[in-house]
Amino acid sequence: MNLIEIHPWLLVAMLLLVAVSTMVVFKVINRMRRKDAESIAREIRAKAESEIDTRRKEAELELKEVAIQQKATMETELSTSRETIHQRERELDKQGDLLETRTEELQKQERLVENNQRKISERISDIKRRDEELDRLLDMQRQTLHQLSGLSVDEATDRLLKMLDQELVEQTGSVILKHEKQIAEVVEQKARDMLLTTIQRYGAAHTAETTTSTVDIPNDEMKGRIIGREGRNIRAIEKATGADVIIDDTPGVVIVSAFDPVRREIARTALNSLIADGRIHPSRIEEIVQQTTQEMDKHIQREGEEAADEVDVHGLHERVIHLLGRLKFRTSYSQNVLRHSIEVAFLSGVLAEEMGLDGPLATRCGLLHDIGKAADHDTEGGHPKVGADLLKRYGEGPEVVHAALGHHDDLSLEYPYTIICATADACSASRPGARRETLDRYVKRMEELESIATQFNSVQQAYAVQAGREVRVMVSAAQTSDESAAKICRDIASEFEKQLTYPGEIKVTVLRETRITEVAH
Predict the structure, then answer these.
(1) What stretches of 201-281 show up as alpha helix (H) in DSSP?
(2) Are the CB atoms for 233 and 280 separated by under 8 Å?
(3) Do 114 and 184 share a structural domain?
(4) Is the per-residue pLDDT at 202 higher than 60?
(5) Virtual CA dihedral for 131, 133, 136, 142, nearest 10 degrees?
(6) What is the pTM of this model?
(7) How far apart are CA 328 and CA 341, in angstroms?
(8) Has residue 23 got a pLDDT over 70?
(9) Which of 248, 293, 331, 354 maximizes the CB count within 10 A of its CB?
(10) What is the mean pLDDT of the chain?
């Protein structure tokens, strides 16, 4: 009975114990969860703060980079602006010098006109005085003749008129010679003004050409790939292009050398393509060189079209345009022949307009006057004859053909455009500096040509003209004959070939003149 009554109490106590234990366990678990949550929160907060610091540092770096880039951009723009200002100042200085020169010339002309007016006034006064004296003498002669000779009035009048006519003829000849001299001075001044105006309206920069080009390479390992096993790649490049490939210790570059600018440019472009492609072996080299050659032909055609458009010359044959483009890769005394032809075209057009002639036709003559230089390597003869034959073959007019043929030889007044073209060619090519040679080198070459010519016996004087393309030699007529003069001319030309190195041709002209002078007492 007691056992039955005690058992429920035990059960209740156990339940209470279990409940208390459960509550304690839950509290412990909650406390542990709260501690874990706080720890996790602290970690999240620490990570967030670290990320915020990282982001802030990155933002600061980006701001610094942007500031540096903006500073560099501003410095570049500032440098460009300074260079533009300096260039403008130089141009203004040149214009100021030209204006001063023109002012001095105008002052000279004003003084000349004042002198002429004074001389004319004096001449008029002198003529009036002579007229009065002539009238007085005529009256005296009439009276004297009538008294002494007993001539009639008509006979005396005829004799006086003949004497007067003879005196007037002498005075008229003197006046004509004087005015011819004045007209020659005015014509020379006007021609000088035309040339100054023409040259002032056109200014072109010239760049000196070289015989080597450089090709940039990414690393020195590429040099070994260009050479190839036992040098087979470099031999294939040189064989396909006709240019020398020079690989030395210079870091980052390979040098391409050739006297022919077209071959040099093909080799340079082909090397760049091979380096970019990465496949360098003989068959690939031949393929790339062939592609580059085709692209070069298109580039030459495009250069010719752009040159014709620049000077507004249209209707040219495609072959003529191609030859014109080839002039871009031809130089004469370091001057690019295409740029020289464009300059001569512009100058010829302006000169023709100043003279009241056909400006577009003169421009066409100037543009095509050196076209023979694009083909004289492949054809016998000098570039004037080669150019004239090509232009005649492709349908150009007689003025254009003769301008190409005769712009270096004795000029014919039958074709005024040839004279204009020769004048523009001289303005472009003969002045020191236009062909990018220093004045010292220019003068030295001229002096060297003249000194070689004057070494020969019987040579009195020698002059180098047309930037050294022609040497005129004066020999003594007493010491030479026509045959010996021809031999001296041939010997001088041979000596030039032996001692000098020069592009193009040097024309040697020997002049033998006989002068006979007598004095009349």
Answers:
(1) 221-227, 232-241, 261-277
(2) yes
(3) yes
(4) no
(5) -80
(6) 0.47
(7) 10
(8) yes
(9) 331
(10) 78
Q: Which two tokens stand for residue 436?
A: 């990018």
Residues 430 and 467: beta-carbon distance below 8 Å:
yes
Instruction: Indicate if 420 and 322 belong to the same structural domain.
Output: yes
User: What pLDDT does 437 receive?
Assistant: 46
236 part of a folded domain = yes
Paired strand residues for 511? 474
Which residue, of 402, 429, 456, is where some domain finishes? 429
Residue 9 covered by a domain: no
Going 164 to 167 to 169 to 172, the CA torsion angle's sign is: negative
Instruction: Supply the CATH number for residue 478's domain.
Output: 3.30.300.20
Predicted confidence band at 25 (pLDDT cuts at 50, 70, 90)?
A: confident
Q: Kindly state whether residue 353 falls inside one of the protein's structural domains.
A: yes
User: Do 294 and 300 meet the contact criterion of CB atoms below 8 Å apart?
Assistant: no
Same domain, 381 and 480: no
- Given 407, 429, 451, the domain boundary residue is 429
- Give the range of the structural domain holding residue 264, as residue numbers without chain letter: 212-310
User: Domain check: are 303 and 358 in the same one?
Assistant: no
Whole-angstrom Cα distance, residue 13 to residue 8? Answer: 8
Q: Which CA distances in Å does 76 have to 69, 71, 195?
A: 10, 9, 40
For 320-338, the pLDDT digits (tens) are 888 888 888 877 766 778 8
Q: Which of 355, 438, 446, 368 is nearest to 407 (CA)?
A: 368
Give CA–CA dist 417/306, Å, rounded.
24
